[in-house]
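Bench notes, bay 3.
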Amino acid sequence: MLYRRLGNSELNVSEIGLGSWLTYGVSVERDRANACVRRAFDLGINFFDTANMYGKGAAESLLGELLSPYRREDYILATKVFHPMSKTDFGLSREQIHKQIDASLKRLKTDYVDLYQCHRYDHDTPLEETMEALSEVVASGKARHIGFSEWSPRRIRAADAFRDQIRFVSSQPQYSMLYRKCEREVFAMCRRRGIGQIVWSPLAQGVLTGKYAPGTRPPEDSRAANRKIDRFTRKPVLQAVQKLLPIAERLSLSMPQLALAWVLDKKTVSSAIIGASRPEQIEQNAAAVGVELDSGTLAEIDDVLDGLVRK
C-alpha cells in the first residue's frame, strides 16, 4: 500500500480507502464485513470512511464494533453529518453538529474521529454557524480535522473566507473516468487551499468493472439489478466501457484496477474510496496502487470515452 498526505493535515491516508455505503450494517452480514476489514488491514489500508446516515447509524455501529480490536492510532476514521437521522434531526446547525458527533462517536466506539465531514451543504443554516460549530468540535478533541462532500466552488470559497475558524482539509466528490465534474473548478481551487480529494464512486457505481454488458440483464447480485443507476448504464456508455477491456488486458489489469489507477493518476487525489462485500474484492482493488499509466494510455482512454463523460 502507498499513502498520501490529506491536504494540509498531518494525516497520511492509504491510496485506497474502505467505505461502508450500502454495505456494512446494511446489506453485508457481519462475518463478511469483518473479513473485509481484516483484509483491509492486512493490505495496509488505514482509511475507513462512513456516515451517520448509512443505515441510519447501522454502518457506524458495525464499523465501530469491527474496528474495536485494533489500536486506535493504527487507522484513520472518517464520518459525516447532514442527512436526516429522524424527522427533526438533520442539517448542519450548531445543535445538530454537536448532537450528531456525540451519537457517531458512541456508535463508532471511539473518543474522536480523524475527519468529520459535511455530507452536503446546508442551505437553511448560516455558513458561519456551521463553521463555528465545526471549530468547536475540533477544539473539544472530538474530531481532528474537517472536510466536506459535494460542495460547490462558491461554497468552498465562502467557507475559506472565515479566517478565524478551523479550515477544511478534505473534499469528497464523486469522481471516475465517467464522471469528472470536479476537474472543472474544484480540484484547482482545493489545491490552492490545501484541501485534498477523497473521491467516491471511482468505479462509477460498478459500471467500470465491465460487468454490465450492453443489451443484457445486469447480474442478479449487482447494484444495477437492485438500484437505478441510469446515469452510467445507457447503451453507448456500456459499449464504450467494453472497449476499455482490451486496454486493461494489454496492461495485465482488471477493469477495476484500470479505473482506480486512472483516478490515482491525479495527484490531487489523496484516496479513492471503494466498497466491498468480499475480501477478495479489496485485494483485487488494492492491486491498482502503484500502477502508472503512460500518456498514451490516458489519451486512448479519453478517445474511447469521448462525448460520454460528465464534465
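Next record in the batch:
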Amino acid sequence: MSCTSCSTASNGKPGGCKSNGGCSTGGCNRMNTHDWLRNLPMSDVASACKVMEVSFSQGTRKDFYRNPNLQAFEKGDLIAVEGISGFDVGEVSLTGEIVRLQMKKRNVKEENPEMKKVLRTATDRDIDIWKQNKVREPEAVIRSRAIARQLKLDMKISQVEMQADGRKATFFYIADGRVDFRELIKVYASEFKVKVEMRQIGARQEAGKVGGIGSCGRELCCSTWLTDFKSVNTAAARYQNLSINQTKLSGQCGRLKCCLNYELDTYLDALQHFPDNCDVIQVAKGNAFLIKKDIFKNLMWYTLPESNKQYPLSIERVNKIKSLNQQGIRPDELEPVEVLSSKAVEKEPEFVELVGQISLRSLDKAADKKRRQDNPGNQQRGQRPQQGGQQQRPGNPNRNQQGGGQQNQQRSQQGGQQRQSSGSGGQGQGGNQQRPNNSNRNQQRSNQQRPNNPNRNQQRPDNPNQGQSGEKKD
C-alpha cells in the first residue's frame, strides 16, 4: 500500500512528501503510527528523545533502538543497527517525541541498558547483502516445513526472517501446545548455517504477517493498525443479535473476528434498559418466548407456540405482563406494537405492450428489396402498365405512336376482349403478343389487369417488327 503523493512526476523526480525516497505520510509500510508531534519545536536538545522506532520486513516487526549521537534521520531512511553477532538493516518508522508515547504503550523504558544502538546510515554494500539474504527466506520456509514434518513435530513454520548479514535466522511457528524442538534447532543450524531463534506466535499474529483483505473489503486490522489482540467469544455475537454461523463469524486466521468486540460495549450499555428474566412470559394463548431484542427501537420480539409470527412488544408492555404473571394473572393479548417501515416503497413499473410497436410490412419490404437485388432480371416484374400514353422504342421506324386520347378510344372500343394464350404459341395472357411473320402489325395490349399471372407485363427484347400498342394493321 503506497500513498498517492509518492508517484513520480514527468521530470523524473518524486513529487509529494520529499522525504529522500521514504514516505513521511506513513502509507508505504504496515502498522504505521501518525506522527502528530512532528512539527513540535524542540526547546532543549538535551531533553530530546534519543530513541527511534525501526521496522523490519515491511512493518511486520518493530523494535526500539537508541540514537546516542542524535543523528538526523528521516522517516523511511534505511539504517544499520546492532544485531546478533553482526548488524541488521531496518527502516525508520518514528522519531522524536512520539516515540516516548509508543514506548509507554508497550511498557519499554527509555533508560533500558539492554537496548541496542543505531550504527549508521545503511551503505550500498549493506543494502546489497541485505537483499541477497532476503531472497533466501521463501526457500527457507519450504525447507524448514519439510524438516519439521520429517521429525513429526506438531507445529507449522509461518515465516522465516533472515538478519541482514545472514548470521541469524528467526523462525516464527504456530503450535497448539509446547513443542520439543531441541533436535529441530540442530538440524536447522546445520542446514542453513545460521544461528537459529525460534519464536512462537498465534494465529492472529500470523494473519497480520501474511496480510490480506477482509470480508468488509479493507485490509486486515491485524496487519494495519491492531496490535493488542483481545479474546473473542460467541457471547459477543449473541449480545449483538448475530446468528451463530462459524463461517461468517470467522476471519482468515480461523478464529472469531476481532471486529466483534468493536461495538460490544455500545450494545451492553443499551441492553441495560431492557428487563431481565423475560425470556418467557405467559398469556392466555400460552407461553411467549423471546426471540430478539432491538436496541434501536427499544422493542422485544416474542413468538407464540402455535404460530410462527413474531410479535414486537415495547419494554413497558413486557414489564406490565411480567408483573401480572407474578400475581398469577395471564393477560388475554400480547398487544404488539405496529412497526412502520421507514424504507420507501418502490413503484412497480407499468406494463407496456410492445407487440404492436413493430410492423411486419417493414420486414416484407426489406425482403423484397433484397430479392430484387439478388435477381436483376426480375426487377421490373410486377409493374403496372402505363396508362397515360405509350413510349416509342428507339431504333424502330415502323412503329406507330398513338396519343393518349386515341389510345383510350381504342381501348374503350375493345372493352374486355382478351387473347387467349396457348402453350405452344408462346403467347402471354394479358401481355404482349408477338407476330414474327408480319413486320407491320403492332401488338395490342390489354387494359385489364391480371394479378395472378406471373408473366403479365413482362418485357420482351426489342423487335423491329413488333408494335408497342394499337390495332393490327393489314
